[in-house]
Design goal:
Radius of gyration: 18 Å
Structural class: alpha/beta
Shape: globular
Strand order of the largest sheet: 5-4-3-6-7-9-8-10
Largest sheet: 8 strands, mixed
């Protein structure tokens, strides 16, 4: 993981050099449409307030839970006592990016969504509320965190989420075997190059031309930046959008030439 100073320096460079986020100068009709109708959609939705109220409560929860760590920096499973408030402060996508994920689902209406990394369930809830007719298959490595997420889904009266506990490498193949195709995948929760590329290949076995893959923290570390470069160059990938904290990947064969965009957000 990069230091805070190194990450800030990288973000500053991104912010200065990225496209202005207004759509000017973007020659791809698809990307221009995405910028205008998804990225810059400022409308608020009813579920936002409910989920953000939940986030506020989680950030004030001083109770401790024992967390199994399967992610980056963990060569073997480790057990740690952590405050729920600390997890809420460090591991949840903020409202800005959770809202963007909501708008992506709202606009493109994926029927089947896979999320690798439930955490406490706030981002999962944004995904689920954006299209109540979709089915969200979400995975969480920690049993204690998964239990809290389930309670949060009940609190929000969300019923289109199927939460699977356990290591992603073991859970993901079983989920994919049940599905004919996956319309959207959000890759979060294991920020290692090898694991990220492994999950990419698994999900590609169920992808369609209209599928959208979203990768979290693509500039989080040198390892993840290397993974992002390999994702961009993958033969199945036709278009990518780098928003610094997340990367969007598209597979539409109508994009005749590979295109990569870096857009300010």
């Amino acid at each position: 993981m990069y230091s805070s100073l190194r990450l800030a320096s990288k973000f500053l460079k991104y912010y200065v050099t990225a496209g202005n986020g207004k759509g000017h100068g973007i020659h791809s009709p698809f990307v221009f449409n995405f910028v205008q109708n998804v990225l810059n959609d400022k409308r608020q939705h009813e579920c936002y307030d409910k989920i953000e109220s939940l986030r506020k409560d989680l950030r004030q929860d001083q109770s401790f839970i024992e967390v199994e760590d399967f992610g980056a920096g963990s060569a073997v499973m480790r057990h740690k006592q952590r405050k729920v408030s600390a997890i809420a402060a460090s591991s949840l996508k903020n409202k800005k990016f959770a809202g963007l994920l909501f708008r992506i689902v709202k606009y493109y209406q994926p029927e089947t969504i896979v999320e690798l990394g439930t955490s406490l369930g706030t981002t999962t809830s944004y995904l689920a509320c954006a299209n109540p007719t979709s089915t969200i298959f979400t995975m969480e490595g920690s049993k204690a965190i998964a239990q809290i997420a389930r309670k949060n889904f009940e609190r929000l009266s969300i019923s289109n989420i199927d939460l699977v506990e356990g290591d992603f490498g073991k859970s993901l193949p079983g989920i994919l075997q049940k599905l004919e195709k996956v319309n959207l995948v959000f890759f979060d929760g294991n920020h290692r190059r090898e694991a990220t590329l492994e999950y990419l290949e698994l999900c590609l076995t169920r992808s369609a031309d209209s599928s959208i893959f979203i990768f979290d923290d693509i500039h989080w570390s040198e390892d993840m930046e290397n993974a992002w470069e390999e994702i961009k160059s993958h033969s199945s990938v036709t278009l990518t959008i780098d928003l610094f904290f997340i990367g969007l990947v598209f597979f539409n064969p109508d994009f005749k030439v590979k295109q990569h965009f870096v857009i300010r957000f």
